[in-house]
Amino acid sequence: QLQAFGGGLVQPGGTLTLSCAASASTLTDYGIGWFRQAPGKEREAVSCISATSGSRTNYIDSVKGRFTISRDNMKNTVYLQMNSLKPEDTAVYYCNSALTGRAWGSWGQGTQLTVSS
Questions:
Q1: Least CB-packed of 49, 78, 96, 106 within 10 Å?
Q2: Average pLDDT over residues 5-30
Q3: How many Å from the N-terminal Cα to the C-terminal Cα in the chain?
Q4: How many CB atoms lie within 10 A of CB 15?
C-alpha cells in the first residue's frame, strides 16, 4: 500500500504539493496514479505517471495546466504539485501503483485537501 501525505487547508488560488510514498517496496518499476474522492462522489483518477523514468504523464482535463505529477526514484516518492487551487479540488487524495498492464493495488490512507477561504 501507498500512503499519501501533505494535505491541508488552502485558500483558493493557493499551492500545495502532495507526496506519495511506500514504506515496504520500491516504486521505480510501478506506474503511479493520483486519485481523489470528494464528498458524495465516486473516486476519480486525477493524474498518472509511467514507471521508471516517468516520461509519460496524464491528467484529467479539470487539472491540466494546474497540477504537475513527478517522481523521485532516489527518494522512492511521487509528488503532485497543485497550483491555482479551486474549491472544487476539495477531496481526499489517494495514490496507488500498478505494474504496466496490471490493475491498481489496494488502497492506502489518503490525505484531505480542503480549498476554502
A1: 106
A2: 93
A3: 33
A4: 12
Strands, E assignment, the chain:
3-5, 8-10, 16-21, 31-37, 44-49, 57-59, 67-72, 77-82, 91-98, 111-115
Residue type, 51: A
| Structure confidence by residue, pLDDT tens digits, 49-75 | 999 988 899 999 999 999 999 999 999
CA 88 distance to own-chain centroid: 16
C-beta of residue 60 within 8 angstroms of C-beta of residue 47: yes
Percent of the chain with pLDDT over 70: 100
CA nearest 117: which of 10, 22, 33?
A: 10
C-alpha cell recorded at residue 31: 506506474
